[in-house]
């Protein structure tokens, strides 16, 4: 890691996930506050967030109460300019196809179960959970996710995230991912 | 349309779909044969098919029995070289997200139905049909689809297809699509 100039794109989960925030602070608010205090002493690290992710962050954290919030550059990716290799699109389409098939199997399984049961609420709850796992877990499934990937690509930045789907697809795009622990190490 | 030099990437459905093949011939075999007879008289039109699509075609047509089959250039797209705008990836991820949600609603609907019914076979059949419509209709859902798009993009070719999903996404990539009727017009 080049100690001279480092760019980092930050995902919300760095401050919000129970697993990762304990490293920076006990609550999301404290985690972000502590992070920015450390960051303000570093001249060689620049942090970025796409506006969509910043928006997400404000659902968990009162960012207006954090004076150093300005240290996070809110930069949208240049989505009209940045290109991605078509191979990534191939792989994504293939991945989605497999997952769509899995989703149908989940649906079929719960129709079978429902024929032998009357526990509607329980069935629907489990169906939703299994379907989510089959179709969403470990995949890019929102424009916020794409924002993080494309911004990290555009800036040749590190991507700080604990999201497995993002880590998987960042790897294909040549983006280095760092964990909360690693992020803490570089700003200390 | 430039009459001097035309490149066309051909989809299987041009020869196989009942609606479109009637324009070229009564059976897929005749349709392809008639097409190639007309094509052989044209010097300004070059036709291409990705190998994956050609493979698909051989399931419907005995291509070895067609002497002029060589007129169709089997060219794979340069998938490691061609880039696509990241905006397309955004739009695809958003589209899939909406469809994944729709797929879950379909699953839930059939769990409700199954709780009040014992017609398993009927339910599963309808579930599959509705799920397929929700998740697959009008979308790119196979590497063959991506092959057609990326090859047409790479060659700056027309894409001859009747697939609504392909037409929709080709439009975003600046690829001109032509129907079987239009294809016939230009080779006559």
Structural notes for this entry:
Two copies of one chain form a homodimer. The first copy, chain A, has 188 residues and is of the alpha/beta class. Chain A folds into two domains: 6-82 and 142-187, 5'-nuclease (Rossmann fold, 3-Layer(aba) Sandwich); 86-136. Helix content of chain A is 56%, strand content 11%. Chain A has nine helices and six strands, in the order βαααβαββαααβαβα. Chain A has a five-stranded parallel sheet with strand order 3-2-1-5-6. In chain A, helix 2 (18-24) crosses helix 3 (28-39) and helix 5 (86-115) runs antiparallel to helix 6. The relative contact order of chain A is 0.18. At the A-B interface, strand 4, helix 5, helix 6 and helix 7 of A face strand 4, helix 5, helix 6 and helix 7 of B.
CATH class label of the largest domain in chain A? Alpha Beta
Order of helices and strands of chain A: EHHHEHEEHHHEHEH
Q: How many domains is the backbone of chain A divided into?
A: 2
Task: Classify the fold: give the CATH topology of the largest domain in chain A.
Answer: Rossmann fold
Outline of chain A: globular
Mind summarizing the main beta sheet of chain A?
5 strands, parallel
Whole-angstrom Rg of chain A = 19 Å
**Which two chains have the most extensive interface, and how many residues on each?**
A-B, 48 and 48 residues
In round numbers, the mean pLDDT of chain A is 91
Q: Work out the helix count of chain A.
A: 9
Distance between the termini of chain A: 15 Å
Specify the oligomeric state.
homodimer
Helix share, percent of chain A? 55-70%
What strand line-up does the widest sheet of chain A have?
A: 3-2-1-5-6
The count of DSSP E runs of length 2 or more, i.e. the number of strands of chain A, is 6
Structure class of chain A: alpha/beta
CATH homologous superfamily label of the largest domain in chain A: 5'-nuclease
